[in-house]
Amino acid sequence: QVQLIESGGGLVQAGGSLRLSCAASGRTFSEYAVGWFRQAPGKEREFVAAIKWSSGNTYYAGSVKGRFTISVDNAKSMVYLQMSNLEPEDTAVYYCAADPNASYWSVIAIRRSDKYDYWGQGTRVTVSS
User: What is the pLDDT of residues 7-27, one digit of tens each?
Assistant: First the structure.
């Protein structure tokens, strides 16, 4: 059973930075994709960023590209989301998600939340103006 545990959320002023962490356990993740999604109050869950564990290929939503960076630490089975230059519009609950069948996912598929089998409980990020 795969477990994903997010941490690192909090309250930050606009322009500030936060690093979210996702601790992954229960499997060997070499063929996995791991994604970050977020859900703001009253809005649908949306794609933020994703990484294919084996290749290191990364994918970003247009709204965060250039501000957010996703990375993995293979030795620790950790996935990070470094968020910089935060905006009030980034306020949301951020979720880590993973799936073992992602090696051949397209750039479209990797952005779909319904493709991921495993989800964390979420960590809240609040950006004040």
Answer: 999 999 999 999 999 999 887
